[in-house]
Amino acid sequence: MTNPTSSGRLSMRLGYRFNLVGMSALGIILLWAGIALFAPQIIPHSVGEIVDTDYFGPVSRDLWFGSDYLGRDIFSRILMGARYTLGISLAAVSIACFSGVALGMTAAVAGGWFDSMLSRFLDALNSIPSKLFGLVVVAAVGSSIPALIATLSVIYTPGAYRFARALAVNVNTMDFMVVARIRGERLPYLIASEILPNILGPVLADLGLRFVFIVLLLSGLSFLGLGVQPPYADWGALVRENIGGLPFGAPAVIFPSLAIASLTISVNLLIDNLPSRIRDRSAE
Amino acid sequence: MTGNLVEIRNLRVEATTDAGRRVEIIKGVSLDIAEGEIVALIGESGSGKTTIAMTLMGYARQGCAITGGEVRVGGVDMVKLSEAERAGIRGTSVAYVPQSAAAAFNPALTIMDQVIEVARIHRLMSAAEAQAKALLLFKALSLPEPGAIGNRYPHQVSGGQLQRLAAAMALIGQPKVVIFDEPTTALDVTTQVEVLRAFKSVTAQHNIAGVYVSHDLAVVAQIADRIVVLKDGTVQEMGTTNDILEEAQHPYTRELLAAFRPKTQQRQPDDEGVIKRPLLEVDNLTVGYGPRSRDGQPLIKAVQAVSLKLDQGRNLGIIGESGCGKSTLARAIAGILPAHAGDIVFNGRELGKAGRNRTRNELRQIQIVFQHADTALNPAKSVEDILRRPLAFYHGMRGKTRDARVSELLDLVRLPKSVRHRLPGELSGGQKQRVNFARALAAEPTLILCDEITSALDTVVAAAVVELLKELQRELGISYIFISHDLSVVEAICDEIIVMYRGQKVEQIASTRLAAPEHPYTRLLFSSVPKLDTGWLDNLEQDAEQVRAYCHP
After folding, report:
1. Domains of chain B
2. Are the Cβ atoms of B18 and A278 closer than 8 angstroms?
3. Nearest CA-CA distance, residue A122 and chain B, Å
4. The CATH number of A33-271 is which of 3.20.20.140, 3.30.70.330, 1.10.468.10, 1.10.3720.10?
5. ipTM summary value
6. Is A182 on the interface with B (CB under 8 A)?
7. What is the 8-class DSSP label of residue B201?
8. Which residues of B touch A280 (CB under 8 A)?
9. Which of A206, B109, B209, B328 could cross-link with B302 by S-S, CB 3.0 to 4.6 Å?
């Protein structure tokens, strides 16, 4: 009666089903993560070194992705840029989601004036356009990597808060919350032990999505010259530096854009195709 | 046997699970229904009764498919028809009355629009004719104000009325067979009587055959000509209603019948020497919802000035129909919903009204068990984690001692040790309710408030849970306050019974004197509980004036 395929048997053993799109998306993300970690060891040329006599050089055997507006190797610069794009975005998304989710669950459980005040305050913060907010902060305190991380986290905390609060409010009305409350449990236990396990799945999906937004916003800020400052360059900065090559169809502007696209699309595809738990496990 | 209206032959239905495995749900069922005959399908949940009833419409639920056999309705095999042909038959030859009419009606359309929709879709008659026909049906189903009720919206009529309107919707296309899918399960007993009467007279009047799906044997006994007992997708026993009730052959049928006749309590008369110590005294308790008015009274009073007393080791039952305030009373005693006025004295000490004003020890001694174990157990935590928490919280247990105690608790509620690591979603309804109960026991309470804990369970499972409660009481000496709308359950376990009506205590009687209630509402309520006797509904005589006074079906 049962006739699972070999991949079916593997997913059966793990108890999860994971489709091909999700797996390839995960592969690309892991590839970028590996590149970010080991970039200094694998770059063929130094990022500051001018290796081509021509600017906006074409793809060649030596320069895989061509050369940039100063004749530097764009392949090496993308590999190094991965460190900034991934590192800053990851730091910012972790801070934003941690504080947003913690505040959201607290507001849902505590309710009352705490909930109202916090919600109104974060709504107000949310209503400021994100790029404008970034512009103002950079104009005020200048652009440094810690300032960028802080700005990006502040911009994305209200969204994470709203999302987590909406989920937590539903969980909060369940009978097991009543049981825990009447047992005499305090707030930290209620949010960490009763609510969080129930909203973890959607919260992780939201984290991935927010990561994409942050990558795009960071690239946007860098494109405007407000993000990562030379001599460092993230992917957004690479696009901006080489925008002059667009009329010539230079690979120097196309490849950094493709890098941004591949990462953000992969994260989105992974979120849409997360492994799903197989409920019927009797055929094991 | 040829010429029967419905002939099901060797029916097989399979489901495909998310692991790609195919499971046979219905394993070769055959049955017949003659014209005008009502056949009941009974069995516990998961026995396939609804699935079989649905195949009469050629329908199988998402993920299921009819894989073999034939289902002939009026000579047409529903299995072989195309989806479009089946759609033509649904509503005209076969119609369906759902379990929850409230979920089946569209809240945005008037009732009349929805009742005559079948006639419109199948172009059976003009709108005016259909409305005239609907009016006749409303009258036949003894709905109040038949002329006006069609202009209302679903939320403007009561649950019992909506259930009868769903029947009108099913009957308007003049079907030959009607599927009744547990149509009275969600109703109060007093309402159920009215609805059953209406169904019975209408089907007899129009000579309509019916399939009545239910797990309630007493209800089925009133309405069905024949009974088919199902278990695990196979027919266990089939026979006329009297045969099944009188001389059931199959062990499962007997189990079902036995569960229906709860043994009345075998309690020793009070020992003369022992002085009864009151465990809980509730005095003039008023509980309500909504904003408070100027004089400090809540907008809606769900419980009004109720007093009760419970002695150590005794049980108290609270019964009444939905909305009478019985659950609110329990929540106020537990401190979940602070009472507005009155006193709660527990073990000689006055308790704070809100749970946060009580000490941890006071909270520990009163535990509440909710009706729906699905929502009362955190779906993301394993059974072990759920039981460990109260042990650590109230008793400071850690490590091996705590794990040993978890095993003991599982033993106490008769669950195998293998469920330890499972999530609540992986347990059956009865098992979940046992875990729910074990969590309350983990606190080592002296009083457990049971809020409709058997209502969501099958008869056989519910009987087992009640048996378990009795045993635990003998072993641990706990007291229960048992809230239910089901008199037979309360009767089986309680010493005293309080009857509530619209937030007020109507009567308090000892379970030994149940036969002679004094208050008219109690009499009405008790007489509405269906009995395992085919003539019960026909012989039931209720004072029409009282029905009107207390019933709002």
Report:
1. 6-102+176-258 (3.40.50.300), 278-289+297-377+447-517 (3.40.50.300)
2. yes
3. 28
4. 1.10.3720.10
5. 0.74
6. yes
7. H
8. 17-19, 21
9. B328
